[in-house]
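dumping this here so i dont lose it
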């Protein structure tokens, strides 16, 4: 089903991405979501579909089944940019890409590329049996967590390994932006559909995330398990060639 005027799918929320999908080129089919990989995304505001930043994820498989997921996120500001860099150690033994430890830092840069004073933030985290400890040079903060949990960027890894069919929804606590607790989240399979993107058919599998304190997400995964598109409110992530 194709929008004749813009050559993008009528499927919601893909139809909110307008000309971005008209220029989209699907990646090569070789991909293993359980192995090492690197995916890059353009970050778009869906008001006018302007490209406002980038996201790069690199997955490394370590001895013993543990997984490292490195994150680099950059977003343009009115004058300058914000950069967030993180590294997560994932258990690798469940559907949610559960992190057991992670570090992250953020910094604002001015239009000349120089760091803006007093904008640097650096923290680390370690998971315990009933809480997450968030540490910075000044303090240690405990986030009480019981049951399944994950980080927002880790979900970009998790959805690629989920069954591409209707199963029991996953219920969990989200740790958003590396240190913000948001309980009562649900991740569930929505549908499988074939859409026409840039004149070519593309088979996609959609997952919905809803929960307290977030704008709902929709993740679109291809047949190989590579996350191609993610939409949350007026923000969209589109896979790009690295």
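and the seq i came up w/
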């Amino acid at each position: 089903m194709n929008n004749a005027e813009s050559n993008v799918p009528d499927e919601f929320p893909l139809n909110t991405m307008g000309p971005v999908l008209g220029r989209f080129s699907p990646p090569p089919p070789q991909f293993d979501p359980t192995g090492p990989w690197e995916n890059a995304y353009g970050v778009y505001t869906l008001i006018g579909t302007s490209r406002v930043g980038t996201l790069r994820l690199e997955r490394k498989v370590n001895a013993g089944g543990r997984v490292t997921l490195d994150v680099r996120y950059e977003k343009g500001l009115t004058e300058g940019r914000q950069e967030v860099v993180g590294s997560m150690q994932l258990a690798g033994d469940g559907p949610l890409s559960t992190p057991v430890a992670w570090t992250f830092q953020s910094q604002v840069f001015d239009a000349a590329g120089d760091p803006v004073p007093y904008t640097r933030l650096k923290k680390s985290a370690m998971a315990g049996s009933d809480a997450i400890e968030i540490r910075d040079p000044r303090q240690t903060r405990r986030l009480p967590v019981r049951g399944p949990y994950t980080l927002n960027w880790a979900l970009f890894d998790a959805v690629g390994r989920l069954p591409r069919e209707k199963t029991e929804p996953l219920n969990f606590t989200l740790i958003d932006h590396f240190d913000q607790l948001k309980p009562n989240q649900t991740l569930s399979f929505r549908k499988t559909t074939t859409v026409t993107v840039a004149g070519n058919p593309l088979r996609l599998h959609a997952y919905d995330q809803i929960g307290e304190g977030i704008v709902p997400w929709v993740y679109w995964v291809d047949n190989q398990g590579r996350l191609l598109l993610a939409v949350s409110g007026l923000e969209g992530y589109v896979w790009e060639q690295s």
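The CA atoms of residues 8 and 14 lie 8 Å apart.
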